[in-house]
UniProtKB/TrEMBL annotation:
InterPro entries: Archenteron_Induction-Rel (IPR053065), Vps3844_C (IPR024382). This is Vacuolar sorting protein Vps3844 C-terminal domain-containing protein. Residues 273-366 form the Vacuolar sorting protein Vps3844 C-terminal domain. It comes from the Eukaryota. It comes from Knufia fluminis. Residues 1-18 form the signal peptide.
Length: 375
């Protein structure tokens, strides 16, 4: 990859004020990259292979690559890969794929430059985000809240071969998914600054929630090219002047740590969390009535316990944050005692009714003397 001059880059940035190119950001789990002052251009073929690599696709069409430049990009932007001797579920990051269509602005409008500038993107990039639920231990979900328009596609993936995949409703209630669906740019307010703000949200999730994110921004669908069988074109790095720096702190505090004992719980508490720290922060360490344990692959939940009120009494806690007293035992005991006494009363009434409806014995009738006639 070769660099061009700043003057050429500035001229190019002005020429693409109404761009038909695509942009790709790769945010790996736990990795903090320094801000770059240049962006690497690539073609649709390489971008499609990078997306497939990040999704873990092992099809021969994607694996039989010998071009050194493509292999170099795959190694740099391909994301987390399964090690030679395997990895535990807790080491395998969850993966988020977000595609936003309809951005026709210039690359210079971004506060955070993309990792890859995809020139002349093809329609095949629209098919790289398909979700297949529960495929060989890979649980994939198509997240589609009602308020999100058709220009946004969100896929969430996690890996767990030991247990069945969680239902869609529980996945959509995860704090990280709620944060993404709340901050993803919509078609009506699609801008370079808005996409950069959303990118900071993904960076925050990468650092705190063990999530590997991929953000693909495409132009209007009508500007996408039909795929052609041609040789890979040589890519070059285009140095660009950085826009004014922006704060790196996300604009939301859903995942902010709070270790104080009077931490207020959210109104809706999800059952599962994507990391132990998220579980502890959101539930205030299970309200001190339990602990966060691994429940489903790399997902965590509160395991509630008991507290001793006095030597002869303990309280069992329940709820997603162990915030409720579990009164199931008291209820069952009360119900059993109530049913028992109800049965006794009903049996007694029934016995008295049966006794009253029986005829008197004949012995009693024989001992009764009728009136005598007077002489």
């Amino acid at each position: 990859m070769k660099g061009s001059t700043i003057l050429q880059c500035a001229a190019l940035a002005g020429a693409v004020s109404a761009s038909s190119d695509a942009y790709l950001w790769t945010i790996d789990s736990g990795e903090v990259r320094p801000s770059a002052n240049q962006v690497t251009s690539t073609d649709s073929f390489t971008a499609e292979r990078i997306l497939a690599r990040r999704k873990g696709v092992t099809d021969s069409a994607y694996m039989s690559i010998t071009d050194e430049s493509v292999l170099s990009d795959l190694n740099q932007y391909g994301g987390w890969q399964q090690p030679l001797f395997g990895a535990s579920p807790s080491e395998h990051p969850a993966k988020m794929f977000i595609r936003i269509s309809g951005y026709d602005g210039a690359v210079s409008e971004f506060n955070t430059l993309p990792d890859l500038w995809v020139e002349r993107p093809e329609t095949t990039l629209l098919n790289t985000f398909e979700a297949k639920f529960d495929t060989k231990g890979i649980c994939e979900y198509h997240i589609k809240p009602r308020h999100i328009k058709e220009n946004v596609s969100i896929k969430y993936t996690y890996f767990d071969k030991s247990k069945p995949c969680l239902p869609q409703s529980e996945i959509e209630s995860l704090p990280s998914l709620l944060a993404i669906t709340a901050t993803v740019p919509q078609a009506s307010s699609l801008s370079g600054k808005g996409i950069s703000t959303f990118h900071r949200t993904l960076v925050h999730l990468s650092a705190t929630e063990n999530i590997e994110s991929t953000l693909l921004v495409l132009p209007t669908t009508s500007k996408l090219k039909k795929p052609k069988k041609s040789e890979l074109k040589k890519r070059a790095e285009r140095p660009l002047e950085l826009p004014d720096p922006v704060p790196t702190t996300p604009d939301f505090n859903i995942f902010a740590s709070n270790s104080s004992s009077n931490h207020t719980l959210p109104k809706i508490i999800p059952q599962y969390f994507q990391s132990k720290s998220a579980c502890e922060n959101t539930t205030n360490s299970c309200m001190g009535h339990g602990k966060c344990v691994e429940a489903h692959g790399n997902l965590y939940k509160c395991q509630c316990g008991k507290t001793t009120v006095r030597p002869d009494k303990t309280v069992q806690w329940g709820g997603n944050a162990c915030q409720k007293k579990d009164v199931s035992f008291e209820f069952i005991l009360f119900a059993v005692v109530g049913v028992f006494f109800t049965a006794i009363v009903a049996g007694g009434i029934g016995m008295l009714f049966n006794m009253g409806s029986q005829e008197l014995p004949s012995v009693i009738g024989a001992g009764v003397v009728g009136p005598r006639a007077q002489r």
